[in-house]
Amino acid sequence: MGNRVICMKKKDVVIRSGGDGSRSKRVNRSQRKLLADEESLHRRALSMAIHQAQVSQRFDGSMSRRIGSTSSRRGTLSDPFANNKQVPEFLESLTVKKFVLVHGEGFGAWCWYKTIASLEESGLSPVTVDLAGSGFNMTDANSVSTLEEYSKPLIELIQNLPEEEKVILVGHSTGGACVSYALERFPEKISKAIFICATMVTDGQRPFDVFAAELGSAERFMKESQFLIYGNGKDKPATGLMFEKQHMKGLYFNQSPNKDIALSMISMRPVPLGPMMEKLSLSAERYGKGRRFYVQTLDDLALSPDVQEKLVRENSPEAFFKIKGSDHCPFFSKPQSLHKILLEIAQIP
Question: Shortest CA distance to 61 belongs to which of 229, 297, 283?
Answer without folding.
Answer: 229
